[in-house]
Design brief:
Layout lengths: L6 H11 L5 E5 L5 H7 L4 E6 L3 H11 L17 H7 L11 E4 L11 H8 L4 H4 L5 H12 L3 E6 L11 H11 L2 E9 L10 E9 L13 E2 L4 H15 L21 E2 L3 H5 L24 E2 L7 H8 L8 E2 L11 H6 L6 H23 L8 H8 L50 H8 L11 H10 L3 H19 L28
Parallel strand pairs: 1-2, 1-3, 3-4, 7-8
Antiparallel strand pairs: 4-6, 5-6, 9-10
Helix pairs in contact: 2-17, 15-16
Length: 514
């Protein structure tokens, strides 16, 4: 550790040396994906800041059950660090927090959102004017106030080239100017045991006084990323290394690559096959309306995979009986179509199959009645609309996708809160989109993790979250970094997941919420 050390840093280091658990503040916390990862590595989740009412309630219910103060939504643009520590009785801002984590909203950074923002604002660079794109500055305001020993910032890969800005590099420069060593990289969740291909930018920083460098987790699982994912990563890196980017890329570190000697990636079938089948919609028993989590769906069998066992047995989040948020959308037009799709089919294939189904319906009508509606007539249009989705195949090629059972799922988006066509269940006998609990499984949330609100709100929370197992891998590196700096290990009884050096090891955790 450096000889020149800030008094508040020294006080927190001494606390850790005496056996205290590192305390985490989670900004833009959502329901708590990052928090769960850190909690599972032995960190205490001291506080969170989240604007969305349902997500804030979920975070409070999971990490501070019974304490309503932790379930309140908070607007970070109207909140001061001093006000937060006073409201939650955290002590002094200087010494209340050891680790600060968070993912400022990514919508304005992501390329997928730019056309819509341009359209709404009628400005070719509208995405740069979106206030959400500047919320990362609020994150830095809290960093400057709390001066944590370590911090993590998570976001979409596009922050590496946001309208010619390398937001990660700008963040690194600021952090280094106030006493941190900071680095950033790209990590794919599938390489860390998550049954989902989800690429994220992860920035880690540690106080310079600690005398340690930043490290990123090594992959624990292997797969060959599909062309689209591998290509997107290469595009991000190509743009990152381009000389036209303001700020350059001095802080970028290439993460370790997975290799075939590692465990195979966890697949969608590994993650979902033990959950109860849903077929009531095919029997006419599902109706339109709000879906609440008021009915238990019992597990039909014992978990068949290590991943399913983890989802049921994650201590402090155990669920040995069944799930109550295993609910789906009401999509009666498309259930028969879902059944006919092949794994990997996207919207163009779905549209073609639907057109074929429409033609079958016309032939059946002719057989039964001897009459075929005139093309373009009201009856013809009504029949077609009841079978064929209306979206342009050129504009929405990726709107639909039937999952492949033998691969991790594609990236879950917050748009799950509006529709779930991007994740149609691979089981044709169930002919449906995924349930809330299945989405949570694909993000690596354990079955005992509570989502507040109804179905749409829960889908949105899941889609916005950082996968807990990816967060846990990052937390493990932060833990080792702090241990190296402090000179001793902090208690880690609630570590989750297999020891990556021993594939036969069991999952171990601490027994209760802190």
């Amino acid at each position: 550790m450096s000889d020149a050390i800030d008094a508040s840093v020294l006080e927190r280091v001494e606390r850790l040396r005496r056996g205290g658990r590192p305390r985490v503040l989670d900004l833009f916390s959502g329901c708590g994906g990052l928090s769960l990862g850190f909690y599972s590595e032995g960190f205490t989740i001291s506080a969170a800041v989240e604007f969305d009412r349902d997500a804030a309630a979920s975070h409070g219910a999971n990490f501070h059950p019974g304490d309503i103060r932790h379930a309140r939504p908070r607007d970070i643009t109207k909140l001061t660090p001093e006000g937060l520590v006073e409201e939650l009785d955290l002590g002094s801002v200087d010494t209340a927090i050891d680790v600060l984590v968070g993912g400022p909203p990514c919508q304005a950074f992501a390329r997928v959102g730019r056309p819509k923002l341009r359209e709404v604002a009628e400005h070719p660079q509208a995405f740069r004017l979106d206030a959400r794109a500047r919320l990362y500055l609020e994150y830095l305001k809290f960093v400057h106030a709390f001066r944590p020993l370590a911090l993590v910032m998570e976001n979409v890969p596009d922050v590496l080239n946001h309208a010619g800005q390398n937001v990660a590099e700008e963040t690194r420069e600021f952090l280094e100017s106030i006493g941190y060593v900071a680095r950033y990289t790209l990590l794919n969740a599938a390489f860390y045991g998550v049954p989902q291909m989800r690429e994220r930018m992860i920035l880690i920083a540690v106080r310079r006084e600690l005398g340690v460098d930043v490290a990123f987790p090594s992959p624990t699982h292997f797969m060959e990323l599909p062309t689209g994912y591998a290509g997107s990563r290469q595009v991000a890196l190509k743009l990152l290394k381009g000389s036209n980017l303001s700020g350059g890329a001095q802080g970028y570190v290439a993460a370790a690559s997975p290799h075939e000697g590692l465990r195979p990636a966890v697949t969608a079938a590994h993650a979902l096959a033990d959950l109860p089948a849903i077929t009531e919609h095919l029997q006419g028993k599902l109706r339109r309306g709000v879906r609440r989590f008021d009915r238990l769906a019992r597990y039909p069998s014992s978990p068949a995979t290590e991943y399913a066992r983890l989802m049921r047995e994650w201590p402090s989040f155990e669920n040995p009986v069944g799930v109550s948020d295993h609910v789906i959308r009401y999509l009666p037009r498309d259930w028969k179509l879902f059944a006919r799709l092949r794994p990997g089919d996207q919207y163009p294939e779905a549209h073609a199959v639907a057109v074929g189904m429409f033609e079958e319906a016309l032939r059946m009508l002719e057989t039964e009645t001897g009459v075929v509606p005139r093309v373009g007539s009201e009856e013809w249009e009504a029949l077609r609309a009841s079978i064929v989705p209306p979206y342009d195949t050129g504009k929405f090629p990726n709107k639909w996708r039937k999952m492949e059972p033998n691969l991790p799922a594609r990236t879950l988006m917050a748009h799950l809160g509006k529709d779930s066509y991007s994740h149609i269940h691979y089981d044709s006998a169930q002919a449906r989109t995924i349930s809330v609990r299945e989405a949570a499984r694909l993000q690596s949330f354990p079955d005992g993790f509570v989502f507040c609100g109804a179905m749409n709100a829960a889908f949105r929370q899941v889609g916005n979250a950082v996968p807990p197992l990816l967060a846990r891998a990052v937390a493990g590196e932060i833990s080792k970094t702090l241990e190296k700096a402090v000179g001793c290990r902090h208690p880690r009884q609630n570590q989750v997941g297999p020891n990556v050096d021993d594939e036969t090891s069991s999952y171990t955790h601490r027994p209760a919420h802190a």
